[in-house]
């Protein structure tokens, strides 16, 4: 990570799933990234010219940027060949049922849903059938309730059509510009789907805004762009849940999240993600906090071959606050490189980072974090705590915290623990009747408890179950 | 009734060949209280851990048997002839627990994020389930119950999983905690995390009260207790015996706890063996004279 770069390096791509490659597309681009492909995407979405221009400019930037390299302990991206990836596939609505049919999903995904206890209707939703219908209904209900207050929650593509001024101002301009990193540029060129959330001044959205089925039903999760604008004094909790469902038809993931936290506003962004084991999961997520604004990131990262994910908050206004809670779990063949990035650019700002990681069966987890306190950001404080838990001697866990402190009147704390899961702890639980597996599960559940308690119950349940399944090795 | 029988038990540290137990013979029956005393390093804690199945020790010789009789398991289970005696050394620690062995730890593990309630209910249900498996193997597989999801907080686990549901368990826990004079706040605290020494010991006794073992091995449960707490813990131990008929193997350095928990038998361990056994008067003698006279008595040297 370079210190002069004011943004996060993150990327997001997904390796291909051969099993769906030739099917289920009404519109699909060719391989690789060309101007022609970008124009086709934009045209297919019937986008205004300004968006096409942004896409093309992002493409140009993408083509002129090198792949990230030279980070210490950087995950291996050599197997990722962007030119071999098909950047855009729009599912054929008419044929969708035939192709996205539940029965055609790979067994491991079906098993996952079964074990998660997700009912049939939801399974269909997650696999792309009927989801739209199901989530449309839910979505409409929510829509009405919020519309009265002026809240907007819709598909990002729709937002471009219906709320062009808001999108034009905020979409990949000041928060995550395409120039930020190669995968942000890629995202800017091929983005598709995602959520748009707008909360007007002084409005509190009491229930969490959830994007769970919708993204998946649209089958465009791989490039989803999430744009959250919380105006002065507003409050919203956005939850993105993508447990296993993003396995579907797409090949590339380059997601982006932009959050604008207004003065005195409060945004929580929570995500539970479980990717297939051959996914390169490389995201760019960033928030900008105005005076006394509060940003909270809660994320659970599981699955994927490689994850590079470092949600970033720029504390721009005096007295703004950031909290990061992250959990990562890496099993065999997985390299989960996650962390957080916080820029204290104003006085009296504060941040807290709590990172928990679990490595098993030879997996690797890494905490990579940067806290930057700018000159003049006096009376700011930060506390970083990262705990790693390892199950065996084959697994590895690293901690790479960077602290760039340019102001002397600050309070900085860093604490890291790395431990092998204790034999004595396991024996203690076994002596009380729990078998070896259940003892480990209980210890892990306890280890991640600070995160699960931040999540609404259904996500907490799901996170727990996912981890239990991982612990049994049954997600393959 | 249950009877735990250690015969000629030899054990060493699994990684390395340091011998610790060199032929331990000991029998503990339900309803009895045995005190196991001896100087540091004589093998008392190792004996306890070997009984419970700690992986750090390897048994090189001898047996640890558990003999069971019908009434031990309540009216619904009749124990077959061939299931009356179990060789504990063939079993996993959790299987031993299911058969009714309990180890009270001198230094219990602290598990963050796991509430006492969740832990104890999970343990109780795991024990019930494991016991059924151990005893009902030949009856063919039971129809697996569908998991219908979560009724309670996910931190408490699925409400429908296991014999004892959340509400029922809350009641059991509350009752037992009252008996032990424990603050009800304990139920929501994380397992042993941040507990004082005394609270931890009390918690060990609470667990035994809930899991209702036939034999409880309590490893220096009196260490680090002030006099009030010692009395509470002792009352708890006596209640285990009196109300549940638990057989107690009380490992201790000191006579002190034996003033409150009166042993039927006292054993002195020296150098990995039971050097001397006797009644309560033996403990008093140890208190007065230390261990050297035993050594002298047994080996003829001090």
Q: How do the strands and helices of this protein lay out in sequence?
A:
The complex is a heterodimer of chains A (476) and B (302).
Chain A: E1 27-28, H1 35-44, H2 49-64, E2 89-90, H3 96-99, H4 107-116, H5 120-127, H6 131-147, E3 152-155, H7 156-162, H8 164-170, H9 182-190, E4 195-199, E5 209-211, H10 213-217, E6 225-230, E7 235-242, E8 256-261, E9 266-275, E10 280-282, E11 284-289, E12 294-303, E13 306-309, E14 312-315, E15 321-330, E16 335-344, E17 350-359, E18 364-373, E19 380-390, E20 396-405, E21 410-420, H11 423-430, H12 436-447, H13 449-452, H14 457-472
Parallel strand pairs in A: 4-6, 5-7, 6-8, 7-9, 8-11, 9-12, 10-13, 11-14, 12-15, 13-16, 14-16, 15-17, 16-18, 17-19, 18-20, 19-21
Antiparallel strand pairs in A: 1-2, 3-4
Chain B: E1 2-13, E2 19-29, E3 33-37, H1 44-52, E4 57-68, E5 85-87, H2 93-99, E6 101-104, H3 116-135, H4 166-179, H5 197-211, E7 215-219, H6 227-244, E8 247-251, E9 265-270, E10 273-278, H7 280-289, H8 292-299
Parallel strand pairs in B: 3-8, 3-9, 6-7, 7-8
Antiparallel strand pairs in B: 1-2, 1-4, 4-5, 9-10
Helix pairs in contact in B: 2-3, 5-6
Give an overview in words.
The complex is a heterodimer of chains A (476) and B (302). With 476 residues, chain A is of the alpha/beta class. Chain A has 2 domains: 34-429, no CATH class; 430-475, no CATH class. Chain A has 14 helices and 21 strands. Chain A has helices spanning 35-44, 49-64, 96-99, 107-116, 120-127, 131-147, 156-162, 164-170, 182-190, 213-217, 423-430, 436-447, 449-452, 457-472, and strands at 27-28, 89-90, 152-155, 195-199, 209-211, 225-230, 235-242, 256-261, 266-275, 280-282, 284-289, 294-303, 306-309, 312-315, 321-330, 335-344, 350-359, 364-373, 380-390, 396-405, 410-420. In chain A, the strands form 3 sheets. In chain A, strands 3, 4, 6, 8, 10, 11, 13, 14, 16, 18 and 20 form an 11-stranded mixed beta sheet that branches. In chain A, strands 5-7-9-12-15-17-19-21 form an 8-stranded parallel beta sheet. In chain A, helix 1 (35-44) packs antiparallel against helix 2, helix 7 (156-162) packs across helix 8 (164-170) and helix 12 crosses helix 14 (457-472). The longest helix of chain A is centred in the first third of the chain and has 17 residues, at 131-147. Chain A is globular. The model of chain A is unreliable at 1-25, 91-102, 117-141, 213-221 and 243-250 (pLDDT under 50). With 302 residues, chain B is α/β, with parallel strands linked by helices. Chain B has one domain (2-141, 150-299): Rossmann fold, CATH 3.40.50. Chain B has 8 helices and 10 strands. Chain B has helices at 44-52, 93-99, 116-135, 166-179, 197-211, 227-244, 280-289, 292-299, and strands spanning 2-13, 19-29, 33-37, 57-68, 85-87, 101-104, 215-219, 247-251, 265-270, 273-278. In chain B, strands 6-7-8-3-9-10 form a 6-stranded mixed beta sheet, with helices on both faces. In chain B, a hairpin with a 5-residue loop joins strand 1 and strand 2 (19-29). The radius of gyration of chain B is 20 Å and the shape is globular. Chain B starts with a strand and ends with a helix. Chain A binds chain B through residues 117, 422-425, 427-436, 438-439, 442-443, 445-450, 452-453, 457, 460-461, 464, and chain B through 52-56, 92-94, 96-98, 102-103, 105, 108-109, 111-114, 119, 122-124, 126-127, 130, 147, 149-150, 153-155, 190-191, 207, 211.
